[in-house]
Amino acid sequence: MTEKVDNLPRKVLTDPVNFVAFGFGTGLSPVAPGTVGSLPGILLFWLTLDFGLYVQLAIAAAIIVAGIWICGESARRIGVHDHGGIVWDEIAGMYLTLFLAPVSVAGFAAAFVLFRLFDILKPWPIRDLDHRLHGGLGIMLDDLAAALYALILLALYGWLMT
Asked: Does any domain span residue 3?
């Protein structure tokens, strides 16, 4: 459940760090902000498809490294650790998950469902990461672990289908 923060939309829309951490405003969604906030990750991946693998990997690394600071700083500014509206971690996780997804609507949809499923259910050790680590690293790591689980299933699917 997302904690209530006074004047949250104003804090998000007027502060560049919060605006980015809240997925350019998608994290303000009143329903399923993490799910809605994952969508920019799909858009970003699609926009970078023609950049080549190495550039995409560099983008992924930049998203992750920047996300540690962005998420931690946004949480500090709004006064809530891992507020449900902070979705930069979902953007990073979704971007990573798409690396092994077939480049098709069905492939991207499968990646989206798998990532969201693992992010919501938080199977071991994701739940432990979520509860034990604090700050930006803690906010980012549980979503990166969910992306890893989704990647494993996508890789298994790709292996079985060849």
From this structure: no
